[in-house]
Amino acid sequence: MRGKGRLKQLVGSRSSDWLISGRTALATTQARINTSAQDKAASASVGVEDAADKISFNDPKEAYISKKTSEIFRAYFVLTLCGIRPLVENNDKLMKLGQKILGKALFGQLMKQTFYGHFVAGEDKEKIKPIISRMQSFGVKSILDYSVEEDMADTKEKEKGVEARKTVPEAQSTAHKQLAQYTAIDESEHKEVDRKHKLNSARVYFYQGEANCDRNMQTFLDCIDAVKGSTGGTGFSAIKLTALGRPEILIRLSDCIEKTRRYYTQVTGKKGMVIKGNVNRDSFQDIFKEKKIQTADVDKFLENMVGDKEGIIHLFDWSSLIDHGKQLGDVFQVPNLETGKMEPLITGDDNGALTKDEEIQFRNMVNRLHKIFTYAREQNVRVMIDAEQSYFQPAIHRLAIEMMRSYNTDRAIVFNTYQCYLKKAHKTIVLDLEQAKRQNFYFGAKLVRGAYMEQERARAALLGYKDPINPNYEATSEMYHKVLDECLTRIHELKTSGADPQRVGIMVASHNADTVKFGVRRMAELGLDPQERVLCFAQLLGMCDQITFPLGQAGYSVYKYVPYGPVNEVLPYLSRRANENGSMLAKVAVEKNLLGKELLRRILTLQWFYKPKGSFVPVGFK
Hints:
The chain has about 625 residues and is α/β, with parallel strands linked by helices. It has helices at about 1-10, 25-35, 35-45, 60-65, 70-80, 85-90, 90-110, 115-120, 130-135, 150-155, 170, 210-230, 245-270, 280-290, 295-305, 320, 330, 355-380, 395-405, 425-440, 455-465, 475-495, 515-525, 545-555, 570-580, 585-605, and strands spanning about 140-145, 235-240, 305-310, 310-315, 335, 340-345, 380-385, 415-420, 445-450, 505-510, 535-540, 560-565. The strands form 3 sheets. An 8-stranded parallel beta barrel has the order 1-2-7-8-9-10-11-12, surrounded by 8 helices. Strands 3-4 form a two-stranded antiparallel sheet.
């Protein structure tokens, strides 16, 4: 088979001319990169070719070998429409008008021949199987997402629990400006910070009560079933935490995590995160003795710290919170350095204290996560926790890592998402990798650039805290490559030490050809075999086939993000895809050019009714 032939040429290859453009990475990361010099020299001595240069993302025949000629024509037509700005800007209104004029049945048939047929795999888990099977025959696996969405304007109106949010002036008056980032505000006052404002590439969930969160959980469980039944044990599913509970709880937990870091600095004088400080309980005990605050509560606080021989990992016992049902208000308390009395770090709706309802809402969210990951582990389906706005992320990261600790004991079931447009992306993933190493669990990560840039910048400017986003696209790409290199280097270290390299598993979710080639090249330089399934790639269905399918045919682990659902119920998803393509005209032009070339070639060679038949076996497929 072609795929296996090319794979043999690629396995173990090294690069002799790897270059990174952009600013110099941090010294520690650069030192690791430099350790590959000997590998590259050895590769050059035996004339091994650069793996990245062996894969072409500009070959139209290779890119669209899995498509019928009619599908190529449809793709060209759809992407052409995405370039017409008035259509894109008013697409949601036009689709609703089409439903009214044509009726849902006829409108649905029209969409199946155009946008729906291009971006969505089918209506249910049975009807998507032909597309999934065909992609598998060309070396491409699937990430399934049930993409039925309510109109965001409708769900926003039904949103519950908003009465406790602060006005913008109240948030601006926060004593520490950076803590204003983790403040729930009334978004209706300023549309530029509304969670649904100018959001093309990500779905938004609004809290409509605990029963609705239970329905969302059931949808995620059903999607796990669909993955199990159609992907041969290699598939992924995806979830969002804001679908499983009240978002304000996540914001308050994020605020608490930031306050914990500040308390640690106040006590020890050390900046940064606790896990990297090499501080043990004795250090805290000595400081408390010095300040004469020795009480039974203080002794219990010290006893509950989580650590190892290298020092404290957490000030609080997250296991008691996540696994044993302790309440937020009971766990997140610290001794006041003046009085010795225990004070809460987490706030709530009851004059600053958490209410009974809020404790129940948090417990329900955690229980839903346990149900999802327990079922996913039973079905051997991996689940990605999607990233959201930065003010949710400290809580989402912490819950994701604690779920990894519980469920990634012998393989990676839980994957967390890292947004590389954030300035602290590298620091965050280093800390999480360190915890996985010290607490002995498998680590899974999906790397993305990020979807909320305009909202994030507007919110930071409005509330007066530092912009959390990298200054430009080049800086974000540099951060992406730095984060990816950190992960691949650690995988290489595991492999060379004789440990299981799959203790760290990474997904590069990117439509950027340079980033994908960077990943391929670094794998070759570090001697990482694509068959080891330590690094995989992913793109959306209907986008960037010129990247996905050449990777699959070259023997790399690669996925398509596959949405499915009834045609008239996925219109919000289709609207976002139209907007996303309309905002990336340069990339769309590249795809249209390749589609046009392949369409012309098929016409000239009389392959009008070409039927795709692949013989490739996806990496890891049973």
